[in-house]
Design goal:
With 106 residues, the protein is α+β, with helices and mostly antiparallel strands. It is built from five helices and four strands; from the N terminus they run E-E-H-H-H-E-E-H-H. The chain is globular.
């Protein structure tokens, strides 16, 4: 699984977004947002590894609405997806880690 388009360089930091995580894991974005809201981590960790933005997201039939989207670092991503379990989730996590690491080495 190649997830290179799922990670980007933003402000000299390699990140992904809650929308990309939802797409990769086949989850609804609202469910990924719920997971982020309920993370059991310190405020310092959350503020260092998750950054909220508002952007337009497609909601079907050509319509869109504004939605909160989180940009996250590799550490934020790992903390978020630790609880995603299944053979498919394991493969996706591994591919994401490889994509983060390959981008870091460039």
């Amino acid at each position: 699984m190649n997830l290179h388009s799922y990670v980007t360089l933003s402000d000299n930091q390699i990140t992904t977004t809650s929308i990309k995580v939802a797409e990769a894991f086949g989850k609804q974005h609202k469910d990924v947002l719920k997971r982020i809201y309920s993370l059991d981590c310190s405020t310092e960790f959350a503020s260092a590894h998750f950054c909220a933005h508002v952007q337009k997201v497609a909601i079907g039939n050509g319509a869109s609405r504004k939605s909160k989207v989180y940009e996250m670092t590799k550490d934020g991503f790992m903390f978020l997806v630790m609880g995603f379990t299944s053979k498919k989730a394991g493969a996706i996590k591994e591919a994401y880690i490889n994509a983060f690491n390959q981008m870091a080495s460039q």
